[in-house]
Write a structure and sequence with these properties.
The complex is a heterodimer of chains A (450) and B (313). Chain A is α/β, with parallel strands linked by helices and 450 residues long. In chain A, 57% of the residues lie in helices and 9% in strands. Chain B is elongated, with a radius of gyration of 23 Å. Chain B has an eight-stranded mixed beta sheet with strand order 3-2-4-1-5-6-7-8, sandwiched between helices. By secondary structure, chain B is α/β, with parallel strands linked by helices. Classes of the chains: A alpha/beta (450), B alpha/beta (313). Chains A and B meet through helix 2, helix 6 and helix 9 of A and helix 3, helix 7 and helix 10 of B.
Chain lengths: 450, 313
């Protein structure tokens, strides 16, 4: 339980040693962790490198709010940056046209989920009062047309297909059919293709040239790895698509491809698709995506909570006391109250990477926290200010008052004494000119001494 | 044309040949002219590996192994460095031949030999089954396909087309039925008809959907009721362009149905599929086949050496 307080101490000490701002020293480690997190999320190598550089420049000199470490602060900065990069305004489908039908074309690699997506999109549009027609222009994959027909029947949207295995003819006749049958949107499902398959890429180009779609959507599997960049780039060069659709988002992929694609082609992500049910289509939320990619959403919310809830004035007083080594049980009690404001101890610890390694979950005891509170509450002001006066009979009284045992009172007093010693040694180190930062604070060494 | 001109021409040819060699792969470009392993080399290596989806932990492992070995062995030539690189990476990958019969024409240890194909959506399970059926059939084996993807619209139709192309029979009951029932039927039929190989196609499912993974485990259990040894193999199909999530896929599918091997598909593009190194290394699951196209004979036996070479191309 004392360890969990070390965070508060960290931030106090960080102040002492002049780490209130992000500098070259404390930015290094944090950025290394973030680089790793992005690569683990499948963000492209070059994109990651550039992104990290940008963040480094942005972060330098930024003020670190109290109660968080510089590295936590950097994570927050990275998150904000990520969110901004992925975001911008929500861009709608570009369907403001007088042409009937308006044409939407989807393209992408094999297995990205185009056919399932077009069905979802058709339903989405139908619910908004449109009359879509699905055109089955994937004439290559066995039974692709059957698949679209089955899905079309499910959502009660007509599907146009012809016998002949010719995507261009299919599209042409399909659009004609839409015109004659009062279908105001024609959605062309094209075959999956590799971006290096020249013949197939030409087919896609021809479709674009001939039918001049209002909207071309690039559909990509959210699980795609480093290849995302090559694929998106080539598809964009050939088709100049209008938006991106991320599919299979109901998996546990971190989806770094979203950042890679956004960086390389700078086209908006218009939909995310999750699940095989035809109504599982979602609009895209940049902040959720940023959290998912970074995988450090816990720290982000920790920093936000700390920003919101901690009483800054109290923190400052505490720091002053720490500096003068006047920290007593009153302050300790106040600390516990502050920490309680931020949620349960367990959730706090689990939110900080590395922390949970230092303090296994089964060792965090909310009950013990309460017991400590009760013990301190049973002390007089004088006792709290100067624990040295607590003799045998006082101990017995405190134990009785708090419903604990003398042993428990003893152990609390002992731990508190140790903690004071630890803080003393830290301030000494600092006076000796050693740099103590939140990153190099010798917690383990100090813990070992306990 | 004088003597010297001829001399020059041959030099030119030599030069061109060298250039060609250099272009052959990043691996040779990487080691070209290196007299020592320095930071620059290691960073370039790191970039190549990560860009091939090898993943950070495995990349670091390889980079560390190389720099440690270089310190110890003090390589003297490019060839030695080249060999060291290939060796270190190949070492991480298990050879499928150690665990299973790989060649299609080899004698299979059991009859019927049941192979279950699993994977997430859109990786190419059905296509891979079509190709495997074709290969086994061409090798003179009697093959039966079980259409146990009863979920996805038109999955059965797709599989029927592949079965027809390969010229092998298929057991199917259409969309919406219990896949375990289809598999039970197929295995019973295989025993009755003296079939050599049963290929079981299952519906694509994301590995984090517990109920679907349980369904897969159930298919396996039901199969065992008819044939205690079945399935003799469980092959996980991975899309070659998938990133680090493939590792999660392998872990979860292994938990549910004990994956014995991998099929890495869609390697005809520029994707490298480097994540299988991590899978092979961490979970000890070898890659058995690779898919390199959409035609029926576009399935190849996995070759570690070629795979590593392609990583650097």
């Amino acid at each position: 339980m004392f360890e969990s307080l070390s965070d508060k101490l960290d931030s106090a000490l960080k102040k002492l040693s002049g780490q209130a701002r992000i500098n070259e020293v404390n930015v290094g480690n944090a950025l290394r962790d973030i680089k790793r997190a992005l690569l683990d999320a499948d963000v492209n190598y070059a994109v990651t490198k550039n992104f990290i550089e940008q963040v480094r420049k942005k972060a330098l000199g930024a003020e670190v709010i109290k109660s968080v470490s510089p590295s936590q602060m950097i994570v927050k900065i990275v998150f904000d940056e990520l969110k901004e990069m992925m975001g911008g305004e929500q861009v709608d489908l570009n369907l403001k046209t007088n042409r009937i039908p308006a044409v939407i074309m989807v393209a992408g690699l094999q297995g990205a989920g185009k056919t399932t997506f077009v069905a979802k999109l058709a339903l989405h549009l139908k619910k908004r009062g449109r009359n879509p027609l699905l055109i089955a222009a994937d004439v290559y994959r066995p039974a692709a047309i059957d698949q679209l027909k089955t899905l079309g029947a499910q959502i009660e949207v007509p599907v146009f297909a012809i016998e002949e295995k010719d995507a261009i003819k299919t599209a042409k006749q399909g659009i004609e059919y839409a015109k004659q049958n009062a279908r105001d949107i024609a959605i062309i499902d094209t075959a999956g293709r590799l971006q290096i398959d020249e013949e197939m890429m030409q087919e896609a180009e021809t479709l674009k040239k001939m039918f001049n779609p209002e909207e071309i959507l690039f559909v990509v599997d959210a699980m795609i790895g480093q290849e995302a960049v090559n694929t998106a780039k080539t598809f964009n060069e050939r088709l100049d698509f209008d938006g991106v659709v991320l599919t299979k988002m109901d998996g546990d992929t971190r989806g770094g491809a979203a950042l890679s694609i956004k960086t390389v082609v700078n086209k908006p992500i218009k939909f995310v698709s999750s699940g095989e049910k035809v109504d599982d289509l979602d609009i895209f939320y940049p902040d959720r995506m940023a959290q998912r990619i970074l995988g450090m959403g816990d720290i982000v919310s920790f920093v936000e909570r700390a920003q919101e809830r901690l009483d800054l004035k109290k923190s400052e007083e505490l720091q002053k006391k720490l500096l003068q080594n006047e920290f007593d049980l009153n302050d300790f009690y106040a600390q516990i109250q502050e920490i309680k404001k931020m949620g349960s101890l367990q959730s706090l610890v689990s939110m900080i990477p590395g922390m949970s390694k230092m303090i296994p979950a089964d060792q965090i005891n909310e009950k013990e926290m309460k017991r400590v509170e009760a013990i301190i509450s049973s002390m007089t002001k004088e006792e709290r200010r100067n624990p040295d006066v607590i003799n045998g009979s006082r101990r017995a009284r405190i134990a009785k008052g708090s419903g604990t045992s003398v042993q428990e009172v003893n152990s609390l007093l002992k731990q508190f004494a140790e903690m004071k010693k630890m803080m003393k040694s830290l301030t000494k180190l600092d006076k000796a000119g050693r740099r103590i930062t939140a990153d190099n604070i010798p917690i383990e060494r100090l813990a070992a001494r306990r | 044309m004088g003597f010297f001109d001829a001399f020059k021409l041959s030099r030119l040819k030599e030069g061109l040949a060298k250039t060609r060699e250099n272009l052959f792969g990043k691996i040779s470009r990487l080691v070209k002219g290196r007299t020592k392993i320095d930071e620059e080399f290691l960073e370039e290596l790191e970039q190549i590996l990560i860009s091939a989806d090898v993943g950070v932990p495995t990349t670091l492992k390889i980079v560390e192994a190389i720099s440690a070995r270089a310190k110890k062995e003090r390589y003297t030539s490019e060839q030695e460095l080249d060999a060291m690189l290939r060796d270190e990476i190949q070492k991480l990958m298990r050879d499928a031949r150690e665990v299973t019969v790989v060649d299609f024409d080899a004698q299979l240890p059991k009859k019927p030999y049941v192979i279950m194909i699993v994977g997430v959506n859109g990786v190419g399970k059905t296509t891979s089954i079509g190709k495997m059926a074709h290969n086994y059939k061409s090798a003179g084996k009697k093959v039966l396909i079980a259409a146990a993807d009863t979920f996805r619209a038109a999955a059965t139709e797709q599989l029927e087309i592949w079965a027809e192309r390969a010229g092998v029979p298929i057991v199917s009951q259409g969309q919406g039925v219990d896949p375990s029932a289809v598999v039970f039927d197929a295995v019973s039929s295989a025993i009755a008809k003296d079939v050599d190989v049963v290929l079981v196609d299952t519906a694509g499912r994301l590995h984090n959907k517990t109920h679907l993974m349980e369904e897969l485990a159930k298919i396996k259990r039901v199969m065992k009721k008819k044939l205690p040894d079945a399935p003799n193999e469980v092959l996980l199909v991975l899309d070659g362009s998938t990133g680090q999530n493939a590792l999660n896929q392998a872990k979860e599918f292994t938990k549910a149905v004990d994956v014995t091997g991998l099929i890495l598909t869609k390697l005809d593009g520029t994707a490298k599929g480097g994540v299988v190194i991590a899978i092979s290394n961490e979970l000890n699951i070898p890659v058995k086949y690779i898919g390199v196209g959409e035609k029926i004979d576009d399935l190849q036996l996995f070759n570690r050496q070629k795979f590593v070479e392609a990583l650097f191309e």
